[in-house]
Amino acid sequence: MHFTDCHAQLMPAYFREPNVNIGVGVMAGRSPHLVGAALLEQYRITPNSRLAHAFTHLDYVDAARTFGKIGGFAHLATLVKKVRAALATVHIMLTVWCRSLPQRASQSDGAWLNGTSAL
After folding, report:
1. Radius of gyration (Cα) for the chain, nearest Å?
2. What is the pLDDT averaged over residues 24-37?
3. What are the extents of the domains in the chain?
């Protein structure tokens, strides 16, 4: 399992991707600066799908009503519980690295880890 870019978001939330991402010079109109229909076309994502809602601003209100909130540690907890149940004899280590939380160790000693707990 890999969970990244959490922004200390504990609960799922409604999220809208931006409708503008300006690429400058040779990056104009190229990934990762694509948004909306151009992004869907480039990555062959079906419009009005769950992935289209996750990665674009298109039809945001209707998609949010259809697909609901996204992200958060609540969804991660559900996934960890399912994996733990499927692999009952395997120990799972959850490592949390989140720049939004206070650091336990100074950044100067190279320790960026905020917390580790065995589940």
Report:
1. 18
2. 91
3. 10-71, 73-118
